[in-house]
Amino acid sequence: MRHLLRCLIATALLVGAAHAHSTLDFVEHLFGASNVHAIAGHGRLAVGVSAAGELTVLAWPNASQTDQLGYITSNAFEARDLPRFGAPEAAGAFLGLVVEDGAGARTVRWLRADAGWAIDQRYAGDGANVETVYAADDLTVTVTDAVDPVEAGAADRLVRHVRVERAAGADVAAVWLLVYANLSPSPPNNRVPELPVVDWAYDGRNDFAALWDAAAGAVVHFHPDDQNIRDGVPSLLAPPAIDFGALGAQLRAGAPDGATLAGLAADLDAAYAPGAYLALTTVPAPDQHQVGQDATPFCDAAGALLDNIADLTTRFPDAPVPVDPMLLDVLRCPEGPSLAEREGFVWQADDAWGDAADGELSGHGLAVGEANSALRAPLTFEGDVATGAMVLVAAPTAAEARAALAASPAPAEVLARSDAALAAWLATLDLPDHADLSDHVKRVARRALINIRVGHVASNGAIVASITRQAPYGLDWPRDGAFFNALLDGVGWSELVTRRADLYLGWQRDRAAVPTPLIDPPPPVDPDTGRRSYPAGAWEMNYYADGTPGGVWRFEIDNAGFALWTLVAHAAWTDDPAAYLNARWDGIAAAADLLTRWRDAETGLPAPAQEDDNPEYTQTLHGAVTTFGALDMAARGARLAGHDDDAQRWEARAKELGDTILERFYDAEAERFSGQSDVPWNPGSAPTGQTAWLVWPAHLLPWDDARVAAQMAFDLDTITPVVNLETEGGAYVVKTTSSAALALGADAAFRPRLIALLETLALHATPGTDQFGEVFLAREGPDGVFADQRVSTPHLWEGALFAATALALANPDAMLRYEAVLPPSRVRGTLGQPDPAPDAGVPDAAPPADAAPPADAAAARPDAGGPPADGAPDAEIACLDCEDEGCDCDATDGGPANGLALLVLALWGLRRRYSKR
């Protein structure tokens, strides 16, 4: 079971894969194709829109927590060739028209890709709002999606404004707007630590209820935060108990009449806890409605996804994917009686999708469990133009949702103020601007920043890798965060970076941690204590916006290094850098001391740790350069803040490590560095990623060192055919361009080449919406080879690195302010030279490699392992995961073998018993 859960989630949280079968997008073969072509939002409600204009992601109360739509795409190899990437036809939310001709005949025309429209999508006026245009001979329909930039604390509002233009002479007498929504409300607490699957993979089991609220003229979909909540591994396998309360009692009695339904709607907040309440209506008000018992086959879609995962082992025998069919089977929807049979319901509403097929809605008003809804609203032509809108509000209670609906401004006003809020925000930034950069490059860089605004969490400053749920990237990686911060400081959004620094300090582990049963891989061996645990002073792999861990690689040394680097570097953008540092010194020192002591006594490299979302504990250039860069930066901050003893200790370790990197990883004959991790399933470990980072941010060598130019020339030679689509595709080439642009962007030998690469990359961005996926594939199209952006589009980090390259070429000093504000490095430039005398400002080298730590070292430093988390005895930590430590444990599976087997059997039994109720 632990192997299943770990592989199913964590492997796909890596990134993609390279294989002869063109699987750079391997993550999509695990989690499904990302059907998002444009996004909108402002730090709370965030929406993803497919290229055909369907809503495929509806994240609230922020981009991280949680998705409010029922939507599952396919992970089959041909998923992107399937309609809607394999999602069921009734998944998500979309619009349509009922069109009446001069003879009174009516037809339903959905605004979708398979309905005969020519579809074009872009951001209206290159602003905040997504505009999708549907063209036919008789009608042109423009749908504009805008998220209202309301103040914090107000209910969040999405408007889908619809403009219908009738062609001259068209046989169109009247039109009605049709709204279909497969909402699946999910409160923020409906999520499992380290397994970010609940709000999408459990569609078909996630919903709670929906009802027609006649007083509000809206359908209210809702999910209380004390019902049907999955918040741990047991709740994934044994479905939580559900009490549908008064709504369930009504369905046991029969169909509700209007008065009964009105009473139920009015009493929602009295009868049910707060949670996620979504109110859906139209402008003008709907003339028909249908609340239906959802018949969408989400369980079949999830089952097919699991079947495809199992099949991957036949295509890729070496791929790290689960193989046990029984273990895959426990994640399927339970078999057994239907909800109505289990609950004794005597009446059930018709499915809204099927009911809407003829454009006439039946008027049913109540469904519990899985529910969907449809609304119809008459539009009035003025001349040949008619307008209307779908309006959706999200709030923690029904009363707040109703109040927000009642106070809704005109839809056109929401569009205008959404664009105005974006323009006001952009006016505060120093966007990349230089005569050498084309308008196209500047536009793509600008869109990358706008997408960060959509994907940031207004309440605390977290930034997700993507708002998508397939892959589940609605998480904040501290490693990515360091680059977001560097870019945002460079363009002037430093207030957010300060908040993010404090957020990361709040997330930092303050004590050693033990593994989560069934989920985590074995912890690393602490070099000071010899015990296995996840050390204090570090960060988790990634986090939900509320600080709950999102992934299972729990000590990535590069994550710790980049988090420390950005905490210190940001001081240069504050009003009082020394005061900023001193106010945060405990966390900074804890991270730097951890990286200092996490040392392999035999090699001088960092002791084994996870690197770049890879599960193994390794010692590559990746972890070494990030540790060096973090310690060098921390020492500079220590000098500024008056902590000279800390600075000397960290400088000594940085000097030793830098010398070791040059000795072990630099090939003088080839004039380049080697020793990178080589994980074919993770393009994050591509050949140039780590060598780019040793140039920046790690800055191992002075940039005028000939070895830097030689390395960057080699790296650019490596990525150029990838960028030019001469290979199967690639990922993260912008790691190289951003580092090279900062280090050598002013060099006449490099600048033209970097600008050309940036121009080509801009051409690869999605047409109309100017964004990137985590990977791109070179594919043949009608006009030749093109870059097919895949995996969690828009991938915010990929976009940020593109924008950072543009800013580095336009104004490198904007991103390098710390070089002028912090004291100069006392390590850089000394590597490969004898250790300086103590009075030269750099302390003696670290103790000899074979020197043992003081006997009381572990007790004196909590970050050395200290007492186990939550007071567990030392023997427990040692025996949770051990190899040759004298414990009777199963080290491969991460815990006592007998206990694991019993737990798996117990959870399996619970699920089987429930399914046969």
- Integer-rounded radius of gyration: 28 Å
Instruction: Please tell me what the overall shape is.
Output: globular
- Portion in strands: 5-15%
How far apart, in Å, are the first and last alpha carbons? 24 Å
DSSP strand count: 22
> Unreliable runs, pLDDT <50, ≥5 residues?
1-21, 839-917
The overall average pLDDT, rounded, is 88
Helix coverage percent: 25-40%
> What does the largest sheet look like?
9 strands, antiparallel
Biggest sheet: strand arrangement: 6-7-8-9-17-13-12-11-15
Structural class call reads: alpha+beta
Total of helices:
31
Give an overview of the whole structure:
The chain is α+β, with helices and mostly antiparallel strands and 917 residues long. Strand 8 and strand 9 (156-166) form a beta hairpin. The protein is globular. The model is unreliable at 1-21 and 839-917 (pLDDT under 50).
